[in-house]
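Readers of this paper often ask what the protein records in our data store actually look like. Nothing more is needed to write down the fold, since each code stands for a local backbone conformation. Below, we set out a record of this kind in full and without editing:
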Amino acid sequence: MSSQTVSHDDVIHFDPYGKKLGMWLFLFTEVLLFGGLFIVYAVYRYWNHEAFHEGSAQLDLTIGAINTVFLLTSSLTVALSITALQKGNTKLSVNLIMVTILFAGAFLFNKYYEYTMKYEHGLFPGMDHYNELPAGEAQFFNLYFFMTGLHAVHIIVGAILLLVVAYGIKKGSVTQQRFIYLENAGLYWHLVDVIWIYLFPLFYLII
């Protein structure tokens, strides 16, 4: 009787395919969210093309490009961390996750610096200079702050998720056989990167 009880307690339901499907469904809702914002952006840019061009000229292209490199590299380190975990190299996997988080921190620092520069030049919602902008240019910055700010929130969430997974690897709950948790976190991170790949040219490379 006791042996039956032990075997029952040892049975743990684990469905990696269901977990991956759930993550893909969640990512689909994220695509719908940003897809809707991209449509709004396209409409307002069509109505105010020249104003959007003027607004874009006031953004720092260098910072935007550097942040793009940070996120593209972080996608690589996430992918490598998944491969390392699949091969049983937990230490390397955790280290690569931490490198990814460092890239996330560098991205957020650059974004904070960029927002600070806009604030110092009065180009921040609610400031007098901002309120005096032409309607089209103000709309550009409204979309810029909202969409890049929302993306920054996703960066923070993704970094926290990766930290939780890294802790799980060190604790032993995320293993070579249960790498789906890291894989799902990686999928989320890749989506965050892809969204930025669209945001960067839409705001920084308007011609």
In short: Residues 63 and 111 are 8 Å apart (CA to CA).
